[in-house]
Design goal:
Elements: H1 11-23, H2 27-36, H3 44-57, H4 75-87, H5 94-106, H6 110-122, H7 129-141, H8 145-157, H9 164-176, H10 180-192, H11 203-215, H12 219-231, H13 239-251, H14 255-267, H15 274-286, H16 290-302, H17 309-321, H18 325-337, H19 344-356, H20 363-370
Helix pairs in contact: 1-2, 1-3, 2-3, 3-4, 4-6, 5-6, 5-7, 6-7, 7-8, 7-9, 9-10, 9-11, 11-12, 11-13, 12-13, 13-14, 13-15, 14-15, 15-16, 15-17, 17-18, 17-19, 18-19
């Protein structure tokens, strides 16, 4: 109508019109309007809006030629569209680019995501940390550490500053692959401000690295890292931190240190959860201190911390291992009455225990309980 009456429209008004129609769910109409605009009105902002709609719809013919008829296209074609826009020095904003890279990675097209991101960098487009983080995370899931290093080198070359999420991805993937030395280096670079890079680690990053250290037998370093966490403003150990450390010391047989940490946790008023309960029980059971484990379990229950299926499985398995089948059966009955789901592992332990050391009166109970409704 505006075009028919030769009414002039400003770039701002054109952008508002296209954007408003898109938000109202009138994507097809918005694309028609975009197609009818003069080239001078097709600003970077309007093109970004259109790219966003195309990504959302997955429908485009040839936006550059103004022949948007609406057909379903592949992600490769959308990536090609972004590349063509880049040839005219029109680039998607960070949100649109992040969405495209994330979608490609989610659909196992990491190579294409890599090409799209590097093409925009090469053509001089402004790239922020968010789309780089999306690609970095995908590379990490595939353990492609060489390409992760290449990406980090490229972002540094382009002056793209990593944020706390970037460092979190790196530390998480390195810890999961047991490359703890490299993870510590990344952490130190993060908190040390190397080459102008500075981002304060959050509690999630601290916990990730502490967990990684404990898993390779470096519990004392994990403990030291917790103390460093205390010295950082706005960051303090939480339930997860203590659970990790208690479990770490228990796994190397230092039950006393684990109990000391548990007592400190109580002293500081840090809430305990069922994972805390299970971690302590597992440590005591591994050392054969079943009576202490049972007392601790009963004490926590009196205080309102109820066990779950994992809790009962730990205790039942431990008592079966020392052929105390009757106590294991008592715990099984308690588990059943508390509503915890039983699984194949629990039945296997009970049956195995009975076959090794049949106890009078207990044999018939395992037959009865095996007929109960359970989840395997």
């Amino acid at each position: 109508m505006v075009k028919d009456r030769n009414v002039l429209i400003s770039p701002k008004a054109a952008g508002l019109l296209v954007q408003s129609m898109g938000r109202a769910g009138m994507e097809e109409e918005a694309l028609i309007v975009f197609n009818e605009l003069k080239s001078g009105l097709k600003t970077t902002r309007i093109r970004n809006v259109v790219i966003g709609m195309l990504l959302k719809m997955g429908r485009v013919d040839d936006a550059l030629k103004g022949e948007i008829r609406g057909r379903s296209v592949s992600e490769e074609e959308i990536a090609e569209l972004v590349s063509k826009f880049g040839g005219r020095r029109v680039f998607p904003n960070s949100m649109v680019l992040t969405k495209l890279v994330s979608g490609l990675c989610r659909n196992k097209k990491v190579g294409l995501a890599w090409d799209v991101l590097h093409d925009i960098m090469k053509k001089g487009g402004a790239v922020e940390a968010a789309p780089c983080n999306a690609l970095l995370s995908a590379l990490g899931r595939g353990n492609e550490f060489k390409r992760m290093r290449e990406l980090m080198a490229k972002t540094e070359e382009m002056g793209i500053k990593p944020n706390v999420i970037t460092f979190g991805i790196l530390i998480n993937r390195l810890c999961k692959s047991r490359r703890i030395g490299a993870a510590v280096e990344v952490f130190e670079k993060m908190s040390g401000g190397v080459k102008g890079v500075s981002a304060e680690p959050d509690v999630v990053i601290y916990n990730t690295l502490i967990d990684g250290l404990c898993k390779v037998g470096r519990q004392e370093e994990g403990l030291h890292l917790m103390e460093k966490m205390r010295s950082q403003s706005g960051c303090a150990p939480n339930t997860v931190t203590y659970n990790i450390l208690i479990d770490g010391f228990n796994k190397v047989g230092d039950i006393e240190k684990g109990r000391e940490l548990f007592d400190k946790m109580k002293e500081e008023g840090i809430p305990m959860n069922v994972s805390t309960l299970n971690t302590v029980l597992d440590g005591l059971s591994r050392r054969g201190r079943l009576n202490t484990a049972l007392e601790f379990f009963n004490e926590m229950e009196r205080k309102g911390l109820k066990g779950n299926a994992v809790t009962y499985t730990i205790l039942i398995t431990s008592f079966c291992n020392v052929t105390n089948i009757c106590k294991a059966m008592e715990l099984f009955d308690q588990m059943f009455s508390s509503g915890c789901p039983t699984d194949a592992k629990v039945y296997y332990c009970l049956i195995s225990g009975l076959s090794q050391a049949p106890t009078e009166g207990c044999d018939s109970r395992i037959v009865r309980c095996s007929g109960r409704k359970h989840k395997c």
